[in-house]
Write a structure and sequence with these properties.
single chain, about 140 residues, mainly beta, Cathepsin D, subunit A, domain 1, 8-stranded mixed β-sheet, 3-stranded antiparallel β-sheet, 11 strands, Peptidase_A2_cat, Peptidase_aspartic_dom_sf, Peptidase A2 domain-containing protein, aspartic-type endopeptidase activity, Aspartic_peptidase_AS
Length: about 140
Amino acid sequence: MSQSALLVGAKCSGLVYVDAVVKKGGKSAAARLLVDSGATYTVLKKDVWTILGLEPLGEIDLVLADGTTITRKVSEAIIELPGYGERHTPVVLGEEEDENLLGIVTLEIFGLVLDPLKRTLKPIRAILKTEHHDKQ
């Protein structure tokens, strides 16, 4: 698969998913993640992070779409995306009712952005400001 665009699956409702592998300490688990450009952090369902034996490193307060604030534990894991390799990323340790989400922090770590019209993840067009020096 080309690294210029990763085609992801979609349901009729327009939700976009990507199949990933989550790793930690020699263990791995397949996970279907909802690509959520409104979510700051990647969230792993309890059945995924318990397979990996992830331990909480702290807690974070999260605000849901309806304005409700919830508290979840956070950890770290390695996420592998097809065609883009693997990266170390913070993850929220979800509860039974939480859905697997691929959040903005992880997308940025991979240098990716969601194209919602094409339902692809594509590289971020990064801009770097540099000073130009005239050579005389």
